[in-house]
Amino acid sequence: MLFGDGICARIKEELLTNFNLHTIVRLPNGVFAPYTSIPTNLLFFDRSGPTKEIWYYELPLPIGRRQYTKTAPIQFEDAHIVNPEASYPDLGIYSFGRGLFKKPPIQGFATSAQKLYRVRTGQFIYSRLFAFEGAYGWVSDEFDGYFVSGEYPTFECDPERVKAEFLFAYFKSPTIWAEVSFGSKGLGDRRQRVKSDHFLRHRLLLPPMDWQERICETLAKVEMLKRLQSETAAELNALLPSILDKAFKGEL
């Protein structure tokens, strides 16, 4: 309407002449998907007089997101302006394919970030700074609603094509870390940030969903066995002094 001819031009002239069009907000692609893909602007005007000046704003997409879709719509919490008086639950990503972990909360007054991004269950996430050594993960229910900085791009997964858990399994491979990181720029090997556009150039063949589910189930069983092994080892280590003591006393 703002840039067309004919009736569009007449509406624009009337709007600017009879109203104060003070603000225009450019929305990201896909905010009204699947109903329309037409680029959308929000117009704010009042009856205080003719338009004298217009403020223009653009609402950016979250890092790692190309557009909004029906299954991944815009949310108020996508980008959160940091409140100095607030505290935000924080997460980190272990290197070497070990997934997410909880960190101390981010204190609004202490962080230099102006925006934080809320993560949601089912998203895939990685660390731009440590992707080269396997800092990838997926957001489980345990971490739903946590916040991250722009150093942690997040991605919505199409539930009909891919599971975030499968991507996590795929990105456990050191070979894949090297392929994704190849060509990234930085100051030495340990400062090679993998930006989201570079990450998205990586290509992989997705197996059928039932195969992905089997892989995820197998991975979950392996992780459970690792935890049991670790717990058993800890229990044996705790019992060892008592066993040795009884042995030296001849009580065994």
Task: Please provide a brief summary of the model.
The chain contains five helices and eleven strands; from the N terminus they run αβββββββββββαααα. It is α+β, with helices and mostly antiparallel strands and 252 residues long. It is elongated.
Structure commentary:
This protein is α+β, with helices and mostly antiparallel strands and 252 residues long. It has three domains: 7-58, no CATH class; 79-206, DNA methylase specificity domains (Adenine-n6-DNA-methyltransferase TaqI, Chain A, domain 2); 214-252. Helices cover 28% and strands 19% of the residues. It contains five helices and eleven strands, in the order αβββββββββββαααα. It has helices at residues 7-18, 164-170, 174-181, 196-199, 209-248, and strands at 20-26, 41-46, 55-58, 79-81, 87-93, 100-107, 115-118, 124-126, 136-138, 147-148, 154-155. Strands 2-1-3 form a three-stranded mixed beta sheet, with helices on one face. The chain has a three-stranded antiparallel beta sheet with strand order 4-7-10, with no helix packed on it. Strands 9-8-11 form a three-stranded antiparallel beta sheet, covered by helices on one side. A hairpin with a 6-residue loop joins β5 (87-93) and β6 (100-107). The longest helix is centred in the last third of the chain and has 40 residues, at 209-248. The protein is elongated. 19% of the residues are buried. The mean pLDDT is 83.
Write out the strand line-up for the largest beta sheet, numbering strands in chain order.
2-1-3
The CATH architecture of the largest domain comes to Alpha-Beta Complex
Mean pLDDT score: 83
Number of strand segments: 11
- Estimate percent helicity: 25-40%
Distance between the termini: 90 Å
> Nearest-angstrom radius of gyration?
26 Å
Strand content: 15-25%
Q: What name does CATH use for the topology of the largest domain? A: Adenine-n6-DNA-methyltransferase TaqI, Chain A, domain 2
Shape: elongated
Order of helices and strands: HEEEEEEEEEEEHHHH
Instruction: Let me know the largest β-sheet.
Output: 3 strands, mixed
Top CATH class of the largest domain: Alpha Beta
- By CATH's scheme, which homologous superfamily of the largest domain applies? DNA methylase specificity domains
Count helical runs: 5
Summing up helix and strand content along with how strands pair, one would put the structural category as alpha+beta
Total domain count: 3
Low-confidence stretches: none
